Amino acid sequence: MASPFQKYYALRVKNLFNNLYEVELTSSHTALHDLRIELKKFRTIIHFLKTVYPKHRIKKAIKLIESIFDEAGTLREMQLLQQWLQQSKMPELETILGLEGSIIYAQHIFLQHIPKHKHTLQKVIDVCGPLVEETNALLPEQYMQKLKVELLEQLRKNIAIEEWHDYRKKIKRWMNAIRWVNSESDEMEEVNFAYFNHLQEAIGNWHDLIIIEDYFAAIQAQKNIDKDLQQHLSAAQLVLYSNLQQREKQVRHLLQQQMPVSTGK
Fold first, then answer.
1. CA 97 to chain centre
2. 180: burial class by Cβ within 10 Å (0-12, 13-18, 19+)?
3. Rounded to a whole number, what is the largest CA-CA distance in the chain?
4. Which of 89, 208, 226, 228 lies 20 to 30 Å (CA to CA) from residue 62?
């Protein structure tokens, strides 16, 4: 009988192909976001397998899955910027940047590459499937426990802002790993789950703005920047800075909260 980890892997494979089909069918922001979430979950599986098997057995799968994730990420980041500009009521800057045209072009390229991405995913499955079948059912639980210990140990220290994004990745790996060992309904029985979920969401919201900040900084670094663009960009950066301060404050508040302590799971 298949282990919970093997069942989880099979569901990820199914969802990845379903999400690619949904993106192909609708080209919607939601479908792309869902695809990236599934890719992140699959990357967590690969990260775990990397801790169990020799590097040469998993190296190819890592490289292939990253190629899809990076291309989807480029489009997603442009969509994040567009959403922020619209929420901040800055249509002029959106127009000057030609964001709508850039997104449409990037969507077109991604859609053209979907057959290639499906083929790439099949190659990843060819690598990972046999490894998942080989994996002892105890190893996913040990991995989950190890991640939780590391999360709690880091939380007791002062986590530097430069470490927030990587800390969030570890939280997401742990949250996914819970589902490898138990049914999805069990995740809320984990006394720390709600706290870590709120924390990773807050860090994720903060990091979305860091991505936009980096985008603006790259434009500012260009030579002979247009004066009209410079003016709109400077105004946007002031608003962004205020937003970043608010989201940074939310993360720091959560990091300083008294978190429930569990001895189980």
1. 25
2. buried
3. 66
4. 208
